[in-house]
Design goal:
The protein has ten helices and no strands. By secondary structure, the chain is mainly alpha-helical. The protein has two domains: 72 residues, no CATH class; 116 residues, no CATH class. The longest helix is centred in the middle third of the chain and has 26 residues. The radius of gyration is 23 Å and the shape is extended. InterPro entries: GLUT, MFS_dom, MFS_sugar_transport-like, MFS_trans_sf. It is a multi-pass membrane protein. It comes from Poecile atricapillus.
């Protein structure tokens, strides 16, 4: 039934495509990009209902004053800009670290009957990490979370490798490896 599951995301995209034209533009987009003050206030009222949104509007005006003179770049311009190469390299390494970490190989070594539960657990782990990270990032800062996340990921990978090596002798270690996969994803979401 994978084809039904795959077509479900297409159905959701089609519903969004049909209903999106009836929604207003984003108020920050209207004010900061299009410089449409009346449209911004109208969009705020459409999105949030009747009320006084002068504080939000004033915040957007302050943001507009701060970003005045800043050129908005498209993707190709960002890729050509040498000053952002360190940030782009960091982002690329972060994305590749999850893609090339070998979690797919670990999942394929599991029993076929528990793989759907592992996939569900991975999704739940990602959700937990998003919620947890967004609540602690202001308190600890990005650098601390990044370094701590990498250290935690390294420790979890050592434990995961150990559990996989010993899983033939102790069958219960296969379940530990599943838990370690979840913890790895949470550590990745919190840090990198």
């Amino acid at each position: 039934m994978w084809n039904v599951l795959l077509s479900f995301s297409g159905l959701v995209a089609l519903i969004q495509l049909l209903f999106l034209p009836f929604f207003p533009e984003s108020p920050p987009y209207l004010l900061l990009q299009k410089e449409d003050k009346a449209g911004c206030l109208k969009a705020m009222k459409q999105l949030w209902g009747e009320g006084n949104y002068h504080t939000e509007f004033d915040d957007l005006m302050k943001e507009k004053a701060i970003t005045k003179g800043t050129k908005i770049m498209n993707v190709l311009e960002v890729l050509r800009e040498r000053s952002v190469y360190p940030q782009l390299c960091t982002m690329l390494l972060l994305l590749l670290s999850l893609q090339l970490c070998g979690m797919s190989a670990v999942e394929s070594s599991l029993q076929e009957s528990i793989i759907p539960y592992v996939s569900l657990g991975v999704s739940i782990s990602e959700l937990i990490s998003i919620i947890f990270c967004s609540s602690i990032i202001d308190r600890f800062g990005r650098r601390t979370l990044l370094c701590g996340g990498y250290l935690l990921m390294a420790l979890i990978l050592v434990l995961l490798e150990t559990s996989l090596l010993l899983s033939d002798q102790f069958l219960w270690l296969r379940y530990c490896s599943v838990v370690l996969i979840f913890l790895f994803i949470i550590a990745y979401g919190i840090g990198p």
